[in-house]
Amino acid sequence: MANAIRSVFHPHVRGYADVNRDALRLLGKPGKGYVALIGMSVGLVGLALIAFLYQVAYGIGMAGITNPVGWGTFITTFVFWVGIGHAGTLISAILHLFRAGWRQSIYRFAEAMTVFAVLTAGLFPIIHIGRPWFFYWLLPLPSQRHIWPNFRSPLLWDVFAVTTYLTVSSVFFFIGLIPDIAAARDAATVPWRKKVYTILALGWRGTDREWKHFTRAYLFLAALATPLVLSVHSVVSWDFAVSIVPGWHTTIFAPYFVAGAILSGVAMVVTLMVPVRKIFHLEAYFTQLHFDRLAKLLILTSCIVGYAYGMEYFMAWYSGELYERDVFWDRVTGDYWWAGWSMITFNAVIPQFLWVKKIRQNLNAFFIISIVVNIGMWYERFVIIIPSLAHSYEPWKFMNYHMSWTEAAILMGSFGWFFMWFLLFLRFLPGLAIAELKEILPPPMKHHHPAGHTAKADPAELSEELPLGYKEFEKR
Amino acid sequence: MRRPRTGVLGVFAHLDTTTDAIRRLRAAGYEHLTVYSPTPRHEIEEALESPESGVRIFTLTGAFTGTGAGAALAIWASLDWPLIVGGKEIVSLPAFSVIMFEVTVLLGALSTVAALFLLARLPRIGRAEGLYHPSLSAGNFGVYASVPRDRYDAVRDLLTQSGSEEVYLDER
Hints:
Radius of gyration of chain A: 24 Å
Shape of chain B: rod-shaped
Distance between the termini of chain B: 21 Å
Oligomer: heterodimer
Largest sheet of chain A: none
CATH architecture of the largest domain in chain B: 2-Layer Sandwich
Largest sheet of chain B: 4 strands, antiparallel
Order of helices and strands of chain B: EHEHHHEHE
CATH topology of the largest domain in chain B: Alpha-Beta Plaits
CATH superfamily of chain A: Formate dehydrogenase/DMSO reductase domain
Distance between the termini of chain A: 18 Å
CATH class of chain A: Mainly Alpha
Strand content of chain A: under 5%
Helix content of chain A: 55-70%
């Protein structure tokens, strides 16, 4: 028995060859369901494109934004998608630094999700500015009058934060893919696939020199991405918090937004993982243990978000600020009460059901909770942005916001755009991190089996250090 | 000694036999080794006793260059057209620290990638040096010793004794 020791995370994976077989199986011929899904996604993108072109032709007035609500669905959706990206970096970078072995099997999906979510988010400021062909005004480029963007403005910080985030997470994603594309190249039988993978693998062969520099570079990228991800949503929150609008002007915003981002992102990871696991039969890779730990993350961030909701109300009351109190009271009793209560129920209350083991381990229930959290987190951004603008200061300028059909179409199209990229990724690039999964599998050993472990085929009896193979090695 | 252009590749199914082969070859004086593995293993690095990777120098240099560049951009652009906004200083360092941080991370990450490409010699274009086997990315380990042709037999014996399943000779 060469492989009597199994990984505690993946007890049903027998060895290195299994990982290659299962990961590369994802790249096979797509089924009808896949074609239908991708058709639907492209259809939604087409719908959004029509709405966008309509808006370009007739002007930004086609959107429901006007005074006093100058930020509407576009900015809400921008913040939503940037937030979705955060869990991917949490799983790929932060959990890598913590050496959390359970991250290996889900990290590739999560990181892909990050890249595509930020790619989606990046579209929205450009759509929102109304004249997208002037988007380069956002960048610090010299003009003939030598006027530079205002470096004291959080909006410019945001340009730097989001472009850096998109660059660094794409780089992190593609660097991590190189060894796995090489594995796909070596196994490819279709000539055009072999050619494409050969180019993308950059001649990777897994030599000791390559791995040595790769592992260090990967570590440093993770170390750089970790503070970056915390900074990005903090900077997004300062877009609001640095202004003086009641409901926005709070010091709690940065941690509150980061926790909310991780909550929504982890929910999106679960939303994607449950169907992918079922359709592609990845039960051996996405185990109960993975869902359990994701549930813990959801509960933690949901509690932080719930605390932030409460603290916002406390501060509004305790500060004695009339306008602040008015805005917060309006959120739950005013015209947008439905959004306010949805936010509180979906983000702070419903995830608490995950404390119950039966619910947490029932993937259908977990899937529904994750979708509810996704909706709730969109509402959170909506509630922060719109009622605050619609109901601030003097009553003569109170005016409600109504989403126009172009905004609704572009919002739906953003989901199509995101899922289109994600589905393409699933079929063309290795979705399971092949090389990284092998890191947590016990390495194949011919001799020197540590006495006492070979008989233990029951994975429950293995300790967590065992799968890494360190103990076996030290005992030699 | 220059690295010979010819060599012998031993394919191994197990990690312990691979590290054995590395130790035996090194003990016999063969220092030009290329070890293939499907996943990074510290055991192989230990057996090779290779020096620490130089990526960290690039990362550090890139990151600090980024801090400087971010500060320089924000300060210079603000001085280029001095305009008081919100009663703040022209050079408002607390506000600029965000820009400095983001550019630090950006250049730090990009220089890390540049270091990886330079030091690992990627992308590899043209005919590859040494032998390779497609099973090396799946589950097998490989030890390739760059040796002149007259040492082929000796190296093959060493690899087989260590437990190599298959030995390939570079006959190109």
